[in-house]
Amino acid sequence: MTGFGRGEAGSPEHLWVAEVRTVNHRFLDQKIALPRGYAGFEEPVRKQVAAHLTRGHVEVQLTVSGEKMAGARLRLNRELAQQYHDCLLDLHHAFALEGGIRLADMLTLRDLISLEEVPPNMDEEWALASTALNKALISCETMRQQEGLELKAELAGLLRALESTVDRIAAQKTEILQQRQHELGERVRKLLAGVDLDPMRLAQECAIMADKSDVTEEIARLKSHIAQFVRFLDLDEAVGRRLDFLLQEFLREVNTLCSKIANADIAQLGVEMKNDIEKLREQVQNLE
Questions:
Q1: CA 268, 273, 279: angle at the middle one, nearest 5?
Q2: CA–CA gap between residue 164 and residue 169 (Å, rounded)
Q3: Where are the domains of the chain?
Q4: At what angle do helices 122-191 and 199-211 cross, to 10 degrees?
């Protein structure tokens, strides 16, 4: 399911920004981008994302501004400055140079002043980063929930179409079974023309063979699966994987049903059901 969320925490001088993007995926696949020096945040970020999302390809980007001002300071090497000063004094006296030693002369010397990195307080930084990430995840979830409501309505429509086709087959099953029994009887009579057979035994055998074309169980299971699908849609939790598995069972029953009934009309209805199931499967891939 697609979604986007953005969150901020901190101040204009030191601001954490989190952005979360999600697209469809069978499992929870996370891609984390962190600022330099904050690699230790990857595992807690993954846990925080997993607490909100259970399915989808998730891209998380965390950035921080103002970190150089807050994370560095200038350091004067007094010991080295003293050595430079003593050397300059020696030169001044040894060669009887005019003038004194000026600050500008000292500033041109190497390594007197250096930029020293100050490690950030990781607990404080994580508190800000986590707050920004939580805001982004909530915003992303809101967008995903809206899309989920629209998908739910579309799935319900596809399910009604599938159920209508199942009802049409159920309404014809008795007639189809009788027709199948008659066809088998006629075929057997032609094959055994001239053979003296007990009519009752022939009818019994034809009935047994025709009974193998009975799809009552398949229709009952399909209706049960449809009812279960509706119940899953009404649950306030992640159901994408369960619905995906249930659709496999839908397809199994339809294939069995079509193989049992050698009827052109039912074969056409079977194609319609498989088409509806494929549409359901495509949309279920978008659900968490």
A1: 130
A2: 9
A3: 3-69+121-143, 78-111, 149-284
A4: 160
Length of the chain: 288
Taking only the tens place, the pLDDT of each residue in 216-262 is 888 899 999 999 999 988 887 778 888 888 999 999 998 888 877 76
**Taking a C-beta distance cutoff of 8 angstroms, is the pair 217, 251 a contact?**
no
pLDDT in tens, 48-82: 999 998 888 999 999 998 754 445 678 888 888 88
Name every residue whose Cβ is closer than 8 Å to that of residue 16 and which is 6 or more positions away in sequence.
8, 9, 10, 62, 63, 64, 125, 128, 129, 131, 132
Q: Locate tokens 């169980």: which residue? A: 217
For the whole model, what pTM was predicted? 0.59
Q: Sheet of 28-33: strands edge to edge?
A: 3-11, 14-23, 56-65, 28-33
Tokens 């690699």 correspond to what residue?
Answer: 39
Structure tokens given for 121? 């307080």
